[in-house]
Amino acid sequence: MAKIKSIEYFRVLPRWIFVKVCDVEGNYGWGEATLEGHTEAVEGTLNALIKRFVGYEADEIENLWQTAWRLGFYRGGPVLMSAISGIDIALWDLKGGYVLFRVMVYYSIRNKFRQDGTMLGAKRRDFQTRKHNMPVYQLLGGKVRNKIAVYAWIGGDRPQDVEVAARVRKAQGFKTIKMNATADIDWLDSPTALKSSVERLKIVKSLGMDAAIDFHGRLHKPMAKQLAKAMEEHQPLFIEEPLLSEHSEGIKQLSNLTTCPIALGERLYSRWDVKQFLQDASIDVLQPDISHVGGISEIRKIATMAEAYDVAIAPHCPLGPIALAASMQVALSIPNFVIQEMSVGMHYNTEAGEYDLTSYLKDATVFDVEDGYVKAPTGIGIGIEVNEDEVRKVSLTAEPWLPKEFYGADGGIREW
């Protein structure tokens, strides 16, 4: 075992936070602590955790997790759990990370020794190799599948041009897309505001693709009930966050009114947050986000809980490559996984400029999509190699990403 020597974090475009953990023997791992729109809050929490965890044993991941959760007195919430996630993912990656070892390289072919017993002509050299030489999914018990079903976004925050965008995704190898159900909408709006939502779903389905519909917590109960009912006959893959997750009683009511599978989970931050939705049987698909929920350690436990309630796992991940790579490691190792979100070409990425999902990777082919799937990565750790030089360069000037703001015709705030 080796102690943690350093923990660094890097703010990078378009809106991500990467974390690097190094131990005293030269091992390192990468994690992601992205919390969209709250970059500086997470950075502040990381500063506090860094002070605590430098000097801890890097292999004792569960001990670090429990320390961060239990010994801070105040527990949970998106900021703390995102910071924990970044460190946790990095520690799992480190378990398959580089280890420094020394050998004596002899460049003399004759066995000549000094009086102290060392060989003449010997030179000490340092090499790096993998510590455990295996992917994280092997540390989690091994694979239960050989490839990972994936989907990508179309349509943007105010969905439009979905036919063109869906055709592009189909050409890229995707068989499933996700799109926002509506633009911003009022608490109680005209029923005509929902007609275009149904038409967009019909367009995508006519192309032979499946579509997940993200209500995004934008709709309140009067409109969510109507839209879920209107979409039933067109069979969305699932409807996501039909109501905000704080309205658990409303979600339970809605689940009794629709046959559409209900998904949520990006705004649940621990197994304790998830518990109620499993117990009241109000959801069909759980969407924990590995960068918001406490990392690999916690999402694995949540998946096991969900399996006992016959609830599927579709990890939320409109984030960076480290979060996606870590999610894929978990997806390969759990029986109730169904489909993985990818942010490649997502509107939040393209709006910010040139940096997209694979911009910080040495080998972008690890996320190649074929016939709706990404093959199980063969790389060790979380399966990717991060271009650290690019990360450090971009982090020098990257600004925090701010959430969108939506306002109605009357000037009142609408849900983003």
The run of helices and strands is EEEHHHEEHEHEHEHEHEHEHEHEHEHEE
By secondary-structure content and strand pairing, the structural class works out as alpha/beta
Helical stretch count?
13
| CA-CA gap between termini | 46 Å
Give the rounded overall mean pLDDT.
92
Gyration radius over CA: 23 Å
Strand content: 15-25%
Largest sheet data: 9 strands, mixed
Low-confidence stretches: 99-110
* DSSP, total strands: 16
Percent of residues in helical segments?
25-40%
Task: Provide a short characterization of the protein structure.
This protein is α/β, with parallel strands linked by helices and 416 residues long. The chain has helices at residues 39-53, 61-70, 78-95, 136-139, 162-171, 195-206, 221-231, 248-255, 271-279, 295-308, 321-331, 347-350, 388-395; strands at 4-12, 16-23, 28-32, 98-106, 122-130, 147-153, 176-180, 210-214, 239-240, 262-264, 285-286, 312-313, 340-341, 373-375, 406-407, 413-414.
What descriptors fit this protein?
416 residues; alpha/beta; nine-stranded mixed β-sheet; globular
Describe this structure in words.
- The protein is built from 13 helices and 16 strands.
- It is globular.
- With 416 residues, it is α/β, with parallel strands linked by helices.
- The strands form four sheets. Strands 6, 7, 8, 9, 10, 11, 12, 13 and 14 form a nine-stranded mixed beta sheet that branches.
